[in-house]
What we know:
By secondary structure, the chain is of the alpha+beta class. 26% of the residues lie in helices and 31% in strands.
Amino acid sequence: xxxxxxxxxxxxxxxxxxxxxxxxxxxxxxxxxxxxxxxxxxxxxxxxxxxxxxxxxxxxxxxxxxxxxxxxxxxxxxxxxxxxxxxxxxxxxxxxxxxxxxxxxxxxxxxxxxxxxxxxxxxxxxxxxxxxxxxxxxxxxxxxxxxxxxxxxxxxxxxxxxxxxxxxxxxxxxxxxxxxxxxxxxxxxxxxx
Length: 193
C-alpha cells in the first residue's frame, strides 16, 4: 500500500479461519475476506473504506494454506518444481458508512525451478513459511532466485492485487484513498472517507 502512495493503519480481525471451509479456493477466500470485513465493521466508527483480503495457494488442484509443520513446509517447497503454484486472492472493499461492499478474485501462477534442500532448510529456519499461504513468499530473497516466472500480477502473489483493488475502489466511487488500515494476517485496509 505504501508503494501505491497510500497511508494506512493496521487492525486485527479476530476470526478463526479454520472454521470457515469450502472446497472451491475462490469461494473459500471470498468467505474468509468477507468474514474479516464483518468482524471489523462493528469496531469502525468513522466513515471509512475497509479493504479485506485472503489468499490460498492451489497446487495440482489442491488448496494449500499455511503449512502447520516443518515437514509439511518441506514437502510444499520441494514440490513446486513439479507443478506451478497458483495463488487465489480474494479482495473485498466495504464503505463502512453505507455498508456497500464489492468483491473480486485474482489468480496468478508461479513457476519454480528446483529449490535445493539446504535452501529449503534455511527458509524453514527463518519461520516465514508458517506465515504464508503455500509456505512461500515470492519476494523473499531466499526463495526469489528459484522463481522462473510469474503469470499474472506480482502484487497478487504478494497478497493484494493492485489492479483488482483499484477497480473495486472505483466501483465504490473511491478515488485515491487518504488513509488505509491494514489488518494483521492477510491484508485488510481501512481508509477514512
